């Protein structure tokens, strides 16, 4: 009877797994058909427009008429905004084969709010690669992720970013300029301590991992190291699955100093000798501060063989106009 019960339990488990997989495939197929259908509707609107019947702009009466008539005939789902983004879906992806079958209409609805084709392409690729939920996608777009990554590269890098998404191939690819930590809800002029910053990051670890990017696995906070009879503590310790290395993060409330760089270099030497195992690449250190002096950084890091990266963070969302102007200047070079 015991053996029969075990076999029966396996049967239930097997059927359950099959049902879950089938439902996931069915949902994905429904989403794919819905996106394709909305693309076709967008094509119909554009073709109607091109025949000179009426200019299909967001403020035109065409969307009002279509919304009213389609809603009366077929029910919900045909609001003015939905119809506008169906049209934009077709204009942005005129080859329907380039549509992702892994993204829902809700993903595309948010992505199509981007101002440029470069942004639309990037957020489409990145949403698919990192399996962002719609909520995660909205947060990344609101934090201007594309612009922050683009401004850390050159014109060719921006175009590659748009067509291929963000690939982490070297330690420098871990950085954003700046890291945005608005989810901590710390007022801009509030006099917080480094310990409070760390505490809030840990309390919002899921959001922090989203901001850090793909590949980070959290290991520990206040990681203790004993070196030469003295004890040191690292604020945050991660392992990066793609780079196959430890990533050490130290938090600084104010400006990054040359002594901070020297201390991080000490930590990295310790990890190379004491913590790294076979198959691990050399560890990477990230000093995360509110300010950094570029000249000081250049002199302080010029003779260091370890990979010490310095990055800024800010506690509020970036200024969209400033980032767009900076990116436009870069693309005009």
TrEMBL record:
It holds the Pfam family YhcG_C. Residues 15-148 form the YhcG N-terminal domain. Residues 173-327 form the YhcG PDDEXK nuclease domain. One of its GO terms (molecular function) is nucleic acid binding. This is DUF1016 family protein. It comes from Chitinophaga tropicalis.
């Amino acid at each position: 009877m015991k053996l029969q019960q075990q076999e029966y339990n396996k049967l239930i488990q097997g059927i359950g797994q099959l049902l879950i997989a089938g439902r996931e495939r069915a949902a994905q197929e429904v989403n794919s058909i819905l996106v394709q259908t909305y693309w076709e509707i967008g094509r119909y609107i554009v073709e109607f427009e091109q025949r000179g019947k009426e200019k299909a702009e967001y403020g035109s009466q065409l969307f009002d008429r279509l919304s009213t008539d389609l809603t009366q005939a077929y029910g919900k789902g045909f609001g003015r905004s939905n119809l506008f983004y169906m049209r934009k879906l077709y204009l942005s992806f005129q080859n329907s084969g380039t549509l992702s079958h892994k993204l829902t209409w809700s993903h595309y609805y948010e992505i199509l709010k981007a101002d440029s084709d470069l942004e639309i392409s990037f957020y489409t690729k990145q949403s698919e690669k990192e399996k962002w939920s719609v909520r995660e996608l909205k947060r990344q777009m609101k934090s201007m992720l594309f612009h922050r990554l683009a401004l850390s590269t050159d014109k060719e890098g921006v175009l590659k970013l748009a067509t291929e998404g963000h690939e982490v191939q070297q330690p420098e690819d871990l950085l954003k300029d700046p890291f945005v930590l608005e989810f901590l809800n710390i007022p801009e002029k509030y006099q917080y301590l480094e310990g409070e910053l760390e505490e809030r990051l840990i309390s919002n670890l899921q959001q922090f991992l989203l901001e850090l990017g793909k590949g980070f696995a959290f290991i520990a906070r206040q990681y203790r190291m004993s070196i030469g009879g003295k004890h040191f503590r690292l604020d945050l310790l991660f392992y990066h699955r793609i780079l196959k290395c430890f990533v050490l993060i130290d938090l600084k409330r104010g400006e990054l100093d040359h002594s901070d760089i020297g201390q991080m270099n000490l930590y990295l030497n310790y990890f190379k000798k004491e913590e790294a195992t076979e198959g691990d690449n050399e560890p990477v250190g990230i000093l995360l501060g509110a300010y950094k002096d570029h000249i000081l950084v250049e002199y302080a890091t010029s003779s260091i063989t370890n990979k010490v990266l310095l990055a800024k963070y800010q506690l509020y969302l970036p200024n969209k106009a400033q980032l767009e102007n900076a990116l436009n200047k870069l693309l005009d070079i």
